[in-house]
Backbone:
């Protein structure tokens, strides 16, 4: 009888240990899910490039990590690649910051002017040169700015002016107007897929 009692007690102990281990696993999974939610909600989130508007620098299918906390600390700057919501279309766009509050923007063909000063754009310099060498405009199929759709040229407070790098094939501030700060999700900081393109994204300044 004592031996049977000992066996019974040992079996109960094993069951209790397994139960505790299951509870610990559940706790760990809940904590992991909460952490992922908080990180994606407030710090970083993934984004998939869809469309040609940021060629030659970003291609369809590339996956990026968007820094969501940076613009809670400071405002966007010229040359930074940002992701923002477009409520009218129910989706997100990726574009480059060209104008910040107070800037007066003018785009004439391949020539960009900010506050009447012509600005060099190193991120599309080679693409422009290649098109011009063929006797073409890089922005040959895209609208200039200002235009009848968006005639206002000065960026208002609480907004940015954003353009796609692929000027001839981009729906951007020339069409949708200025992007309000509340619509900006964050700055695209890392390409993490495909792995052969893994890198930190370079943000140009003027």
Residues:
């Amino acid at each position: 009888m004592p031996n049977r009692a000992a066996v019974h007690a040992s079996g109960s102990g094993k069951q209790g240990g397994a139960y505790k281990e299951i509870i610990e696993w559940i706790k760990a999974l809940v904590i992991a899910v909460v952490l992922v939610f908080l990180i994606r909600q407030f710090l970083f989130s993934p984004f998939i490039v869809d469309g040609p508007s940021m060629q030659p620098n970003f291609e369809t299918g590339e996956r990026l990590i968007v820094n969501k906390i940076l613009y809670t600390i400071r405002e966007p700057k010229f040359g930074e690649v940002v992701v923002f919501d477009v409520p009218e279309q129910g989706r997100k766009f990726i574009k480059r910051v060209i104008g910040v509050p107070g800037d007066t923007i003018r785009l004439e063909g391949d020539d960009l002017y900010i506050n009447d000063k012509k600005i060099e754009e190193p991120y599309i310099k080679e693409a422009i040169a290649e098109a011009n060498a063929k006797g073409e405009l890089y922005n040959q199929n895209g609208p200039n700015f200002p235009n009848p759709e968006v005639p206002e040229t000065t960026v208002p407070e609480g907004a940015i002016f954003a353009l796609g790098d692929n000027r001839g094939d981009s729906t951007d501030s020339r069409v949708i107007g200025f992007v309000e700060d509340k619509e900006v999700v964050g700055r695209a900081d890392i390409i993490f897929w495909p792995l052969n393109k893994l890198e930190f994204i370079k943000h140009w300044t003027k």
About this structure: DSSP finds four helices and eleven strands in the chain. The two ends are 87 Å apart (CA to CA).
